């Protein structure tokens, strides 16, 4: 079963909340307004891939790891 690593480029993040809206079970906004991942390694992509796709500044990356 594949595993996936989810990362956010904090410098690129503009805090728009698109990731949180598309995947609230794994994305939140910090008190500084930037997004963070609740679980950075998952076995199911689920809505994490959608969060990557909707990020307007491409700050989210979902990569398969071995």
Profile the largest sheet: 3 strands, antiparallel
Order of helices and strands: EHEEEHE
Q: Residue ranges: pLDDT <50 for 5 or more in a row?
A: none
- Major β-sheet strand ordering: 4-1-5
Domain module tally: 1
Number of helices, counting only DSSP H or I runs of 4 residues or more? 2
Distance between the termini: 9 Å
Roughly how many Å is the radius of gyration? 11 Å
Name of the level-1 CATH class: Alpha Beta
CATH topology: Alpha-Beta Plaits
How much of the sequence lies in strands comes to 25-35%
Helical percentage: 10-25%
Beta strand count:
5
User: What coarse outline follows from CA principal-axis ratios?
Assistant: globular
Structural category is alpha+beta
Rounded average pLDDT: 96
Can you name the CATH architecture?
2-Layer Sandwich
């Amino acid at each position: 079963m594949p595993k996936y690593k989810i990362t956010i480029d904090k410098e690129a993040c503009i805090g728009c909340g698109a990731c949180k809206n598309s995947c609230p079970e794994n994305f939140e906004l910090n008190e500084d307004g930037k997004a963070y991942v609740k679980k950075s390694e998952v076995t199911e992509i689920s809505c994490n891939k959608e969060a990557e796709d909707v990020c307007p500044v491409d700050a989210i990356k979902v990569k398969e790891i071995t």
